[in-house]
């Protein structure tokens, strides 16, 4: 917050690198939601399932309580993406387990978020499972991670659903009912490297031609929510955001 206040007082912008907002798939999803392709957004389900090798935990802080574990290392990206698509978070509930590795940090957890709009989102996360259902292993954003033809994010509305990163739009052919068949529409989108786009945005910011897509204040809100998730999982209670 001291950094945020200094940035705003001096008029010097601070950019935080939440690269997913620069991904053309996410930009297309944001546009579809805004245009009402899903009707009213009601529910979102996120899966972050992957296997971190044992050598990952040879780095001391990766297994240190209060800084390590998938809640504090990985969830920040899911939080920023959900806020980008769903709006502001009202409250969170969570639980966690370290049953697989037995370290001082969790290896598996579940989170529920309630948004001001009434949207409910769930996140299932584990770094101890052999599975491809995560953004890192399906989006193709990072070369060191193999890309799988799988899905990780499901957005559900009153008139349709959207699965990511394939950008599949599901809508009924006729009456909207669970007894009616739905059609799958592959939505077109531009191709592009989100990291390159992020650096281009950074250059525009330096030149004074843009404002931060994710400012220091915006990113601090993400951090507050992640810390609330960790607190909720540790205490076993619902935490309301201020």
Automatic annotation (TrEMBL):
InterPro entries recorded for this chain?
Gfo/Idh/MocA_Oxidoreductases (IPR051450), GFO_IDH_MocA-like_dom (IPR055170)
Domain GFO/IDH/MocA-like oxidoreductase span(s) in chain numbering: 26-133
The name of this protein is Gfo/Idh/MocA family protein
Species the sequence originates in: Marinobacterium aestuariivivens
């Amino acid at each position: 917050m001291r950094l945020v206040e200094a940035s705003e007082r001096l008029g010097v912008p601070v950019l935080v690198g939440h690269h997913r907002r620069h991904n053309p798939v996410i930009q297309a999803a944001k546009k579809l939601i805004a245009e009402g392709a899903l009707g009213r957004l009601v529910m979102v389900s996120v899966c972050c399932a992957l296997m971190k090798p044992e050598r990952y935990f040879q780095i001391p802080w990766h297994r240190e309580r209060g800084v390590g574990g998938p809640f504090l290392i990985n969830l920040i990206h899911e939080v920023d993406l959900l806020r980008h698509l769903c709006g502001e978070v009202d409250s969170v509930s969570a639980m966690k387990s370290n049953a697989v590795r037995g370290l001082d940090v969790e290896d598996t957890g579940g989170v529920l978020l309630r948004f001001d709009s009434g949207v409910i989102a769930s996140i299932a996360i584990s770094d101890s499972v052999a599975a491809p259902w995560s953004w890192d292993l399906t989006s193709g954003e990072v070369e060191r991670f193999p890309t799988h033809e799988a899905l990780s994010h499901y957005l559900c509305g009153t008139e349709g659903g959207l699965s990511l990163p394939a950008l599949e739009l599901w809508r009924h052919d006729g009456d909207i009912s669970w007894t009616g068949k739905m059609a799958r529409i592959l939505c077109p989108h531009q191709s592009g490297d989100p990291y390159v786009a992020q650096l281009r945005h950074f250059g525009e910011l330096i030149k004074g031609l843009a404002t931060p897509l994710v400012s220091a204040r915006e990113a601090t809100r993400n951090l507050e929510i992640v810390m609330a998730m960790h607190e909720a999982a540790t205490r076993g209670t619902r935490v309301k955001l201020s």
